[in-house]
Amino acid sequence: MTLDGTTAWITGASSGIGAGLARDLAGRGASVVLSGRDEGRLAEVAATLPTDSLVLPFDVRDDDALAAAAAAATAWKGGVDLAVANAGISQRSIALRTSMAVYREIIEVDLIAQIAFAQSLIGHMAERGSGRLAFVSSIAGKVGVPVRTAYCAAKFGLVGYADALRAELSQTGVSVHVIYPGSVATAVSRNALTSDGSKRGKSDAAIDGGIPADEAAATMVDAMLAGQREIIVARGMEEAMGEMRRTPDALLDQVAAMVAAGYIERMEADG
């Protein structure tokens, strides 16, 4: 499916899944806004794209910078059609030895900042009556995985926000997708935080042997364009675990039907 004339905005776009999504979306014709903290690496990704691109570097935890970036992204081509909340950081440490500072850091980056990103765009999309919001969670957002308690907490939380948001926006023409990657060959393990907040600095066999980032990205985009609300991108045991915890479409439809029947209006009337 062509995406000619559309604009996509991706956070965490300097490498890994984010860069893969940028390449795939641009290959389908979309103009791409790339965000992350490293302007140089974002520019390198932008230089490989066959369509127009805009580099908007900022720290996802900086509310003022996010507001400025949202204004620039929506003004660039007249609107954002697809936004992917992909920025994040993982963890490799057991709870017994993990500092609370690590929990706060991971939840701030992987949950609060992703919510803020979406909040900066939902008014714009709802007003236009169209758009797609995608949240990159994880198989660890469906299954509690050891040595990732903070990461799981953030990714599970992101799913809850996205599911509720999807229902709230179900009458506006805005779609909400949640993506659940398993092991994808990126730097996620090397950049993961350890018990004291330092970077792990090494990868592991599961990640190194994971799905290539460009292949994973293509699967994600295909699924979004097909209208899938939950998108599991994994292999083997990870895929099986994700499928075991998949939310039935009938349940998602039921919650959306509550909104269509006036649930929000009744709740607001009750104060």
Task: Give your account of this protein's structure.
There is one protein chain. This protein is of the alpha/beta class. The chain has one domain: 3-Layer(aba) Sandwich (Rossmann fold), CATH 3.40.50.720. The protein contains ten helices and nine strands. The strands form two sheets. Strands 3-2-1-4-5-6-9 form a seven-stranded parallel beta sheet, with helices on both faces. The chain has a two-stranded parallel ribbon with strand order 7-8. Helix 5 links the parallel strand 5 and strand 6. Helix 4 runs parallel beside helix 5 and helix 5 crosses helix 9. The chain is globular. The chain starts with 6 loop residues before the first strand and ends with a helix. The model has no long low-confidence stretch (mean pLDDT 97).
Summarize this, please?
This protein is of the alpha/beta class and 271 residues long. The protein is 48% helix and 14% strand.
What is the level 1 CATH name? Alpha Beta
Number of helices: 10
CATH architecture: 3-Layer(aba) Sandwich
Radius of gyration: 18 Å
Biggest beta sheet summary: 7 strands, parallel
Order of helices and strands: EHEHEHEHEHEEHEHEHHH
Q: Provide the β-strand percentage band.
A: 5-15%
How many structurally independent domains? 1
The CATH topology is given as Rossmann fold
Report how far apart the termini are.
44 Å
Q: Output the strand order for the largest sheet.
A: 3-2-1-4-5-6-9
Can you identify the CATH superfamily?
NAD(P)-binding Rossmann-like Domain
Total number of beta strands:
9
* Mean pLDDT rating: 97
Helix fraction bin: 40-55%
Helix/strand/pairing category: alpha/beta
- Outline, from the CA principal axes? globular
* Unreliable sequence segments: none
